[in-house]
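In this section we walk through a basic example: taking a raw amino acid sequence and producing a predicted 3D structure, encoded as discrete structure tokens. The instruction is simple. Fold the sequence below.
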Amino acid sequence: MLFSLKWLKEYVEINVTATELADKMNLAGQEVESLVEVGKGLCNIITGKITKIEKHPNADKLVITQIFDGKDTHQIVTGATNIFEGAIVPASLPGAVLANGLKIKNSQLRGIDSNGMLCSEVELGAAQEADGIWILPEDTPLGVDFVEYANLQDTLLDIGVLPNRGDCQSIYGMAREISTILGSPLKKPETQINEINETCQTSIELAEPELCPLYTGRLIKDVKNNKTPLWMQRRLQLSGIRPLGLLIDITNYVLLELGQPLHAFDNEKIENSKIIIRKATQKERFTTLDDIERELTSENLLICDGKKSVALAGVMGGKNSEISDTTTDIFLESAYFFPSNVRKTASKLGLRTESVIRFEKGVDPEQVELASQRASHLYQELANGKVVKDFKIQKNQNHPHFQNKELDFSVDAINKLLGSSFNQNEMQNTLQKLGFSMNQDKITIPSWRRLDIQELPCIAEEIARMLGFENIPSTMPLDSVIVERQTKEHKLSNNIKTLLINNGFFECQTFTMIAEDDFRKTDIQATDLIKLQNPLTIEESVMRTHMLPSLLKTASFNLKRQAENLKIFEIGKTFISRDQKVSEELHCTALIIGERFDNVYRETDKKANNFDIYNLKGLTNLLTSLGLPELNYQLTTTNYLHPKQALAININKQTIGEIGVIHPTVANNYEIEAYIYYLDININKLTATPPKKVIFKSISKFPQTRRDIAILAPKTLPYNEIEDTIKKFKPKNTVNFFVFDCFESEKIGTDKKSLAFGFIYQNNEKTLSDEEVNKAHEKFCNFLTQKLPITIR
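The resulting token sequence is shown next.
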């Protein structure tokens, strides 16, 4: 949340630099994420009135203006088309510096002297775009320093307000915090009003006193929708709120200033002079200010008049009671709505307004009336409003949020909890500065902290952060520290990650939420999806059941930015719903695209430089180095893989993953034209596989001997059948075998193929004789011809 330093200084004296203030706030638990300098360098911008406009004699699109600043007249040539005589505008004189760093000098434009420049909101850093020169209100004084007058220079503190600190979501709330940190006095907001002695005819009825325990209304008559002052517009803009007109801007201003949301109704649109706070009926429809008709449930709270609904309580007003240019009387609402009800309503309807942000964390119930009075003061000062004395209020006195809250207080207990040695005076002074009151062994919580402070540890935290964590001595723990053991999955994941990184892969981290459309794009069956009840975006609306969409989006993003050669992987979770139960599975998924090496220029080398499926197959075989059993591969079919290049990875006849080429249609759906090679391994299934026992064997000191076999086999005979037979029945002293030749020719038959195998024989205890090896080898050859439809060549 952004906080204007100048605005904060109106309520608390800050005698340190912005950087020093940020450091002190960080130590006190208020995280200042950054300092934003607005309008830095802007200078020598004044206000002036255009007294005369003449055509430029040498340019059709330029005019010569005379600008009077209250004392002197300045001639400025401009091409602006929205100016007119009598307009008050900001003018940068020679020596001025604009928001983009441009320095203004005396110049000549087509032969005519120009002593400065008329400025737009863009050139002064007040807007991203503008239609022309900034035309200022008629009552703007002439010759003033416009940078100061329009609040064009400021320092914004970007503070990450903690979820439990709703009291700090306002200028006044943060000023109260700074007041305690710096030890400076806190000023009260100006709330003086001159009320007229008239009666407000509108009555208030609390049909839901638990959900709306306090509702106030104030009638303000004869308001003028004047131009919002520049200082107010700028403060709204710097806080991220767009000015909408004075009557609405005042409510937004007080929301930012005091943290209490307000709503202004057009009093003429409130029928039967009634305000009723009730629950909506099931499927009741209501059109909000954004002109969207919404279907409500019986859990939603409504503000109604005598005939219709006029606002969604704590969330957004209604289209049928909004302020317009013809509004003369307003009924100002300031209320306290139960936080959880506002949060549920906003979440269900997908509405995230500034009011919701405050109400859902809990506003200060004792500040509801103060905010109404502060806004009334501003309506009186800026909109010439007449505040009616008859202030309407309905309050549920028995609501727990309005009851004083007391906790037991013990100096010894707090010191024991913190490991500190603070005395009672230190603690008491600190807590009193924070708004707490003490009565012997009891402490009363201030109204703005009732929802936050629950137990003694909460009090201890307040003392520690304000007196300084650095003042608490460090001590060794009395008990031994228990180190959490790594799970099998975690240990294996780290080993696989190291293996992939050592082989040139880059790790990705993506969201576990994806879009339903990703299942269509990847042709993955989308059954029993786990949908989020309140997704932030459509692109993150369901939990992923597969890792592939996440990595394909990452690959597409990188390829569009000329990263053409990719080796990426992610180790993450997938979520599957079975029998109304959600199970999580840990997967490692990898993609490779492009070429192994960059800048390969020889044509012969280029052909061998492209990635292929064997790169990933060889990588998976390295898993055996992690103590896993030997992998087997089997042809498979899936919608998202190429029908001819898809393999299931098996261990002990159980499928633990898959490998293949992404189907071209799926690749095109992600705007990828290159071949994508894909690997997926289920880590949970891997850890369930009994590890291979690693047995040390000493290297044999006796020599090896080799024998070869050339076989003639039908082309229809799969190689893995030959390989499995050799593995199963190979001679006792065979330590290795391999294929070293594959030959096909019409001479041996078009339906035949010739394969040559090399066999390595070795014994760890003696030197094998030729007689022993020949005998075993010959017997094995005869055995192969019996088991397989082959002949020995």
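Looking at the output, two observations stand out. Residues 405-467 form a domain with the Phenylalanyl-tRNA Synthetase; Chain B, domain 1 fold (CATH 3.30.56.10). The CA atoms of residues 250 and 435 lie 28 Å apart. In the next section we compare this with other chains.
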